[in-house]
Design goal:
Elements lengths: L2 H10 L4 E2 L8 E6 L5 E11 L3 E9 L7 E6 L5 E6 L5 E5 L4 E5 L8 E8 L5 E7 L4 E6 L2 E5 L7 E4 L1
Antiparallel strand pairs: 1-9, 2-5, 2-13, 3-4, 4-8, 5-6, 6-9, 7-8, 9-10, 10-11, 10-13, 11-12
């Protein structure tokens, strides 16, 4: 199923409704729609000269301690943040090194725009995450987290 088909099917279904962004924050898991893998911290730290320490991320088959996230939204804006529940690190994307990470504070590289945001009748929420600073979609290609210019099925994330 393509991302366009996924979004179109959600929009046309009378049993689906737009996700209410004003609901209280909940703890969720980011699961890739294409391969069902779950985003979690890898336990490795990279040093970035401009912003300090960054924790890298990996994909796993099942949720672990660092697989849980809290979604936040900048007031009166389309900007979203995803904060790791265990570490309080913000999800970010480095377009120069093409890697996904978390770090303690959020600035431009830790800002995300939801290009698609739909909820199905079974309560599953599908989103397409776009890095506001890096101008790329969060995707999985060849089993690796990456940023891509054009979105496809591997850019859909299920928020469980």
């Amino acid at each position: 199923m393509s991302v366009n088909s996924f979004v179109r099917s959600k929009k046309s279904s009378p049993t689906l409704s737009r996700y209410d962004l004003h609901t209280p924050a909940v703890v969720l898991v980011l699961r890739c729609f294409a391969d069902n893998s779950i985003l979690k911290l890898a336990g490795q730290v990279k040093f970035h000269p401009a912003s300090g320490s960054r924790s890298t991320l990996v994909l796993r088959d099942k949720a672990e301690d660092t697989s849980y996230w809290v979604e936040g939204r900048q007031s009166k804006s389309e900007i979203h943040f995803f904060k790791n529940y265990a570490t309080n690190g913000y999800l970010g994307y480095d377009p120069n090194g093409d890697y996904i990470y978390t770090k303690a504070q959020h600035y431009g590289a830790e800002e995300w725009i939801l290009k698609a945001d739909e909820q199905s009748s079974d309560g599953r929420r599908g989103v397409v995450l776009f890095a506001n600073f890096g101008k790329k979609y969060l995707a999985i290609r060849d089993g690796k987290l990456t940023g891509v210019s054009k979105y496809s099925e591997d850019c859909i994330w299920i928020l469980d």
